[in-house]
Amino acid sequence: MSQENGVENKSTQPxxxxxxxxxxxxxxxxxxxxxxxxxxPIFFHAVHGIGVGAIGAFAANLLFNPKxxxxxxxxxxxLKKILPDAENSFxxxxx
Length: 95
What we know:
Distance between the termini: 115 Å
Radius of gyration: 35 Å
Largest sheet: none
Number of helices: 5
Order of helices and strands: HHHHH
Strand content: under 5%
Helix content: over 70%
């Protein structure tokens, strides 16, 4: 009778290869609730870094571009050449 119980126990226990194959299927429902709270702040941190980097690149371009330096150094003469004249653009509203 003890031999029959031993044979039955071996057939009911899963093989280790089956457990290894099922591990990703079993771990996925547990991994998603743990991964999402970590992934969302990392995503926003990356978006923030890209935005700050873009602002920095734009500021550096304004600072080191020769035309921008000319606009910054001038008293407004170069800026008046680029922008439309304020008196002409609002002449329709004045009486």
